[in-house]
Design brief:
365 residues, alpha/beta, TIM Barrel, four-stranded mixed sheet, 45% helix
């Protein structure tokens, strides 16, 4: 039936046949104008690869500082050192927050922050040692590849040395932030003072080779072109073939409020919901058989659109996002519970399951 619906789309024919899609196929699908059919093929692929379970984690988000040496045009979170609302958490404050997270049922603590220009490497080691000592069962998912690269430059240690020391201190896995879009033509216009796309990939490859798995993100919905999206997905796919270290892809919708891109009128509106759904579907099809977890970040979409995205190739809702501050800085509500996420999944006829960081099922509902 689906084969008849796709008509003359060679890319969708290849997707239905389970073939790897090329750069040309990706561009064809970015310009494909029937979202219903694209969604049906992506959903069919999702069902074949991962079934009807939709997963999520009980995750606590902790931003240890909003002080940042970078000043990215797409970010509403960063502050410069000395600003009235700049902050950096002490080890005691971090411990207090993680204790609360555990009481809330979190199984992982997701730790990211700004590029703080003066914090020593020992600050991060001490943070992880304290958490691991007091909460040994919590997965410490901390510091993006971009933060590791910045720390390398700041402390004049190799990225490999930093990863090794942090792993010894308790680092279990890494979040996928900082990847934004890899292509230099677009990256240079949306980030400032951050590693290149290739440097991000090099750091994360080192982490994977050391047994530190990670997520990977893709920031879209700002000033990118179709080729930048496809380039990003193919680079993820090629690295995953080498390392098998990515756990899931989380496409991140650009959130406009309070960003430099908004203030300079480079972006006047957030992208449409149809574009969101296209990105989820395309991610599923471009990464099929290589990276089979496609996460729908409900914090950025809102819960109703997130439910629709689950019918466009998504199989995961990321997590509860307790205390998520980066999207909150851009005007998005960020709180949910495991029960609410389970209800969201049931409402669309799928089977909810709580997972750990590495997608092992902990509880079914």
């Amino acid at each position: 039936m689906l084969e008849q619906l796709v008509g003359d789309s060679q890319a969708l024919d290849r997707a239905l046949a389970g073939e790897e899609l090329s750069y040309k196929d990706g561009l064809e699908l970015m310009n494909y104008d029937n979202q219903h059919i694209l969604a049906a093929v992506a959903d069919n692929t999702r069902k074949k690869l991962v079934g009807d379970t939709v997963t999520f984690a009980a995750s606590y988000y902790m931003n240890y500082t909003n002080v940042c040496a970078a000043s990215c045009q797409m970010c509403a979170f960063y502050r410069k050192e000395g600003a009235d609302d700049a902050y950096t958490l002490t080890p005691q404050e971090i411990e207090q927050r993680v204790s609360i997270a555990e009481q809330m049922g979190a199984t992982e603590v997701h730790i990211v922050g700004g590029f703080h220009p003066t914090l020593p490497l020992e600050y991060y080691e001490d943070m992880m040692r304290v958490i691991k000592k007091n909460h040994p069962q919590l997965n410490i998912k901390a510091l993006t590849a971009a933060e590791i690269y910045f720390l390398s430059k700041l402390t004049k240690n190799s990225t490999k040395e930093i990863l090794s020391r942090l792993k010894s201190a308790g680092l279990d896995s890494m979040p996928g932030g900082g990847s934004e879009l890899f292509h230099p033509d677009i990256r240079d216009k949306i980030v400032r003072g951050k590693c290149t796309g290739q440097q991000w990939l090099d750091v994360i490859e080192e982490a994977h080779n050391m047994g530190i798995q990670s997520n990977v993100t893709m920031l879209y919905g700002h000033i990118e072109k179709p080729e930048h999206i496809i380039d990003h997905l193919i680079k993820i796919r090629e690295l995953q073939k080498k390392t098998n270290g990515f756990i899931t892809l989380i496409p991140l919708k650009f959130s406009l409020d309070n960003t430099e891109l908004e203030q300079q009128h480079l972006v006047n509106n957030e992208c449409s919901s149809l574009y969101d759904l296209k990105i989820i579907a395309l991610s599923r099809l471009m990464l099929a058989n290589i990276l089979n977890n496609i996460s729908v970040y409900w914090v950025a979409y809102g819960k109703k659109l997130a439910q629709v995205a689950l019918a466009n190739g998504g199989n995961d809702l990321v997590g509860t996002a307790f205390s998520e501050e980066i999207y909150r800085a851009a005007g998005k509500p960020t709180t949910s519970s495991v029960g609410e996420l389970a209800t969201m999944v049931k409402e669309v006829g799928r089977f909810p399951a709580q997972r750990n960081t590495h997608f092992e099922i902990l509880k079914q509902f």
